[in-house]
Amino acid sequence: MQVEALAIERQTLSQSGNTVFRVDLADARTVVLRMSPLRGAFAYTAHNLGALCDIGVPVQTVLGSGALSSGGSFVVMSWLPGRDLTFELPLMQAAEAAALADTVATCQQRVAALPPGQGFGWAPIGRPALGASWSDMFGRPVEEPLDEPPTPLNRLRSRLRGLRRELEPYFQSVQSVCFLDDVTTKNVIVDKGKLSGLIDLDFVCYGDPLLAVGNTLAQLAVQEGGAARIYGEALVERWQPEGEARRAMYFYSALWLTTAIVAADAIGDAARASALGPIVHGLLDASGA
Hints:
Elements: E1 5-11, E2 19-25, E3 30-36, H1 45-54, E4 62-67, E5 73-78, E6 83-84, H2 85-88, H3 94-112, E7 121-123, H4 152-166, H5 168-173, E8 177-179, E9 188-191, E10 194-198, E11 204-207, H6 210-220, H7 226-239, H8 243-266, H9 270-287
Antiparallel strand pairs: 1-2, 2-3, 3-5, 4-5, 6-9, 7-11, 8-11, 9-10
Helix pairs in contact: 3-7, 4-8, 4-9, 6-7, 6-8, 8-9
């Protein structure tokens, strides 16, 4: 792309380890520049986006990619107008939130209709994943009791381990279904209440699509406002998980939030850890654990 850049603005939300910039070009276009310290980090990005575009999922277009002199890699992509869902939800009306959840679920269900995967876990679309089963993604079930102090976090972990043991037959039964695991309250770009597109799709996941639903519910649980609650309810209503699948959805939510508690403890944020604890217990209660 031999076009002069008029303005470059670093984007701060990225949690992928990539450096992301918005670039305004002299030809009136706006693009995204993503850089990774890893060689080949974007080797399958164009492949994935092409496959998703073919099934009607709104995504970016790759305009160019290559290697950096530092040994890393870069990709230039089209810009999607709007902001991440996490910022837009507090501004949305109830009907907008419900409609958006339905649209995102439609995208995920189109992805789920792609051919089954070879293996479980993360991979480019149509390429083998490394896991032999979905159960492998969560480690081997651990028998109780463990010799650990009865701290609030350890009590949560004990309940979570118990639910994980109970869900082992379900995890073993999960098929290798394609889904977008990191499409939650982030990587969903919303413009004027409507879906502008989905981003950060260098890889997909093969396994249980309810993982994305559960992780979304976990992130919504710490957001204020009625729109967040309605978005979550609409998402669950669209998927309609029942029985062990519904319990697994709550397990995924509780696992995500427990990881957040561990991170809060690690940096000494006792207030956040304390606030998240009751939410996790509520999710585990809902699962019947």
